[in-house]
Request: fold
Amino acid sequence: MFRRAQLGVSLAVLTLVAAGLHLSPAAGQEENFARQILARGRVFPEIGPGVAALRRDSAGRYYVLAAPAKAVVVYGADGARVGQIPNANSRGAKIVYAQDIDLDAQGRLVVVDRGANALKIFEPDGSLNATIPVTAPMSLAALSGNEFAVAVLRSENLVSIFDLHGKLLRGFGEVEGAPASAEKSGLLGRGRLYGDSTGHIYFAFTDRPDPTIRKYDRFGYASYEISLPASEFTPQTEARRWNSITIEEGGAAATTKPVIRALGIDPETHEVWAAIGDELVHFDRDGNRRAAYLTSTKEGAPIEASAILIEHDRMLIAADPLGVFDFALPERQLPPPSQQ
Reply:
């Protein structure tokens, strides 16, 4: 059994000392507020629409999956493009249509090739290491020991664990009846998987009435579930734009609801950042809510995250079709508590 994380945490007013931080009320919440944070600039400028995933390896290289999803672009630690995968070392191996990517403990790139009904594992130099047959894979989290947690479009479980040979080792996660229109929404499935450096798996639901995240260990123990009231993310002005999906129930008129479009997990603290429209909600490692932020360009245009990468002192946020933007981690911009 999982425990629900605390959601009604009152946020104390903090002194903001860095430029670009402004206070604004959160939607429908008087005791909580969202702070506006502005991007410091754009990175990987040749990357535009359709960013689905951002990853960084131990050598500081960045891997970007973007439209048309037939290759993963690789950048050096300085942000300069250094190549792509597949490449000449791939010896003819192709990506038909990539849905998601991750990096395993050996630094190999694992691609969810939905177009080929497979996971494809590439070495850092681009050579193909293995092809794992998986029917209708949608997202994954690479685990240690050559195991892979996969969200499959049609499965009895939310999470399916496969080995390097494509053998289904185990599955877990309760499956609730999804709306008939779930596949029409463009999200294709019940939700999306993310992983962290300790082997934990995070499932961000897209078929729930409220934005919901559940955290599992690799064997299926759910340590917490976060459920955010959908009413909190009701747009208050036309200037606030929200990603949503359409749901039809019993042929009734369509309605929209906010969904989590991206998660970022801090590799050092294992804290979670969830993107809903242009709002970024921050949780500690136990699922307790810490703060909320509105993400914008320097000019104030809302940034709706499609992918998030958390680093030591910054976060990269991809927005479709604007590209990838660099933000300082908000907590790094606040003064330390005074010593008594």
Notes: The mean pLDDT is 83. The domain at 3-333 is CATH 2.120.10.30 (Neuraminidase). The chain has one domain: 3-333.
